[in-house]
Amino acid sequence: MQFQRRLSHGVQAFASYTWSQSIDIASDDVSNNIPEESVPPELNREASVFDVRHTLRFAMIYETPKWQGRSFGAALRHWSLQCILNARTATPVDVLWQDRSDLTPWPLAQTSSPVFRFIFLTAMLPGRRFNASAFVVPVEPRQGTLERNALRGFALSQWDVSIARAFFLTKSTNLQFRVDAFNVLNHPNFADPSGNLSSGELFEVSTAMANIPFNGITNGLIPLYRIGGPRLLQVSLKLNF
User: Fold this and answer.
1) What DSSP state is assigned to residue 194?
2) Whole-angstrom Cα distance, residue 231 to residue 10?
3) Among 13, 31, 118, 147, who pairs with 60 as Cys (CB 3.0-4.6 Å)?
């Protein structure tokens, strides 16, 4: 769903909500030489690694009107306020075990009992964490009984705000002073916790902010320009001609 308000009385706005679901049998598997009988495709048909169920985006620009008067009007003229809100639900986390003998990651750990499916998350102030005792590693190298990408990591939300003032030098040239505040509320957004049971104490731990590239994948953007980092303030001057 999408809403657009065209520029009117100095206000322009855009809002969108997306519900989606992506299902596949392999999104980012990098395992080599795993026998097909050990990883049956039909058992791996679950949510994709990049599956995001709910996404909300909002953007707005407000430009001050042409105030009348010489002193008061000139001081409030040519200001603009911009804000962008990004929010989404959590992405999946796959629980696996890596055999140190051949460094082959077996995709799914075995649950000790179906009843443990209800306590994958345990309370931990100020939030929640995975319950490591809910999983049992298979004795022999084989597919476990836990579904692929069964758990979910952290949701993400960020609000960016910008304030700008334009100083017109000529009719076609202006100097813009701008202050940008990324994640203005300094809301913490953490990367998904580790789902590797063989990592010991690192299992269920998030070791980075959400804007840090995963496995070197940057999508062409450095962390400074990716959502999910701490609050960042930027002051700039721009000459438009």
Assistant:
1) B
2) 28
3) 13
Return the closest-CA partner of residue 61 out of 22, 14, 97. 14
d(CA 8, CA 63): 10
Q: Which two tokens stand for residue 241?
A: 């001609």
Q: Spell out the per-residue pLDDT of the chain, length 241, in tens.
A: 999 999 888 899 999 999 999 998 877 655 555 555 555 677 778 898 889 999 999 999 999 887 666 666 667 788 999 999 999 999 998 888 765 444 445 555 544 333 333 344 444 444 567 777 788 777 776 667 788 888 888 899 999 999 999 998 888 899 999 999 999 999 999 888 888 887 777 888 888 888 886 554 555 567 777 888 899 999 999 998 8
Instruction: Give the phi and the psi of residue 14 in degrees, each rounded to 5.
Output: -145, 135
